[in-house]
């Protein structure tokens, strides 16, 4: 009894051919798995469409892409106006010699996959394609593209554990802003594999964006606990010992900015000075 191959062959010439449609590469591997020793595959467009969960027009486009680039040839045998046989022939001799040694192909070589197998195959293929597509959309944003393979493994693991792709993109954006803000030399920018393996999306970055200073009465504890320290920093910087500060301290929008004020951050103290002079 004739049996199909249980492995696919995708040579480098096909894998790295940028002229091929994306689906064509995967389809080529399936054709090799279904081909006999002479390089013939009898699978129909419907078979491939069911296997990959796409319509027949997509399969026909993938086949045309392979044929136009010289990897396969579609052959139709006719008797009068009727089609007698239709099959696909591999054009790469190195591939055809590796396929299983079976007799000349017959219709029995190709059976329609069961619904269960098709669903499982489609789920696996679609999941893989989705993860690859999402990773590529993230990877193109990263500033130092080194260690892509290891970065993808860390990305897949993170997404599987529930990390949002949008969060990763946001944090890469913030890391890029920090690099620009600090004018970081390229040699000190983390390789992609390092950033992803260290879960860089969990870090906070100095983006250089100004923190607004506003007058607010919503958090008196914040003012009371920090007022004296900020006042000391203010007077130390500007020497306005005799000039009263507002009764309610002009407050930055976030706690981190308050900590910077208490530490004497020049940029925020200057902003505070502007607010004080407008309100005194």
From TrEMBL:
Q: Which InterPro entries match?
A: WH-like_DNA-bd_sf (IPR036388), WH_DNA-bd_sf (IPR036390)
- Segments of skewed composition (Polar residues): 102-115
Pfam families, per database record? HTH_36
- Matching SUPFAM superfamilies: Winged helix' DNA-binding domain
Question: Region Disordered: start and end of each range?
Answer: 102-129
Q: Which organism is it from?
A: Leuconostoc holzapfelii
Q: What is the lineage of its organism?
A: Bacteria, Bacillati, Bacillota, Bacilli, Lactobacillales
Q: What is this protein called?
A: Helix-turn-helix domain-containing protein
Superkingdom assignment: Bacteria
């Amino acid at each position: 009894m004739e049996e199909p191959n249980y492995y696919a062959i995708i040579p480098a010439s096909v894998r790295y051919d940028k002229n091929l449609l994306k689906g064509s590469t995967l389809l080529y591997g399936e054709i090799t798995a279904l081909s006999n020793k002479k390089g013939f595959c009898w699978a129909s467009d419907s078979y491939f469409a069911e296997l990959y969960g796409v319509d027949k027009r997509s399969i026909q486009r993938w086949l045309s892409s392979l044929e136009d680039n010289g990897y396969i040839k579609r052959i139709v045998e006719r008797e009068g106006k009727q089609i007698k046989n239709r099959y696909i022939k591999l054009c790469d001799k190195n591939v055809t010699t590796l396929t299983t040694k079976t007799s000349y192909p017959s219709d029995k070589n190709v059976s329609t996959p069961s619904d269960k197998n098709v669903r499982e195959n489609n789920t696996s293929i679609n999941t893989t394609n989705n993860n690859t597509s999402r990773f590529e959309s993230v990877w193109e944003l990263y500033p130092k593209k080194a260690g892509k393979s290891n970065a993808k493994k860390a990305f897949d693991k993170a997404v599987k554990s529930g990390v949002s792709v949008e969060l990763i993109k946001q944090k890469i954006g913030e890391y890029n802003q920090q690099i620009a803000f600090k004018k970081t030399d390229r040699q000190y920018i983390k390789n992609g594999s390092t950033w992803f393996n260290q879960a860089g999306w969990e870090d906070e970055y100095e983006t250089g964006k100004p923190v607004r200073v506003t007058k607010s009465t919503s958090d008196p504890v914040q003012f009371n606990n920090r007022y004296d320290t900020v006042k000391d920093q203010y007077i130390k910087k500007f020497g306005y010992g005799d000039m009263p500060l507002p009764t309610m301290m002009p407050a930055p929008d976030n706690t981190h900015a308050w900590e910077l004020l208490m530490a004497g951050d020049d940029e925020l103290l200057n902003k505070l000075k502007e607010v004080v002079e407008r309100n005194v």
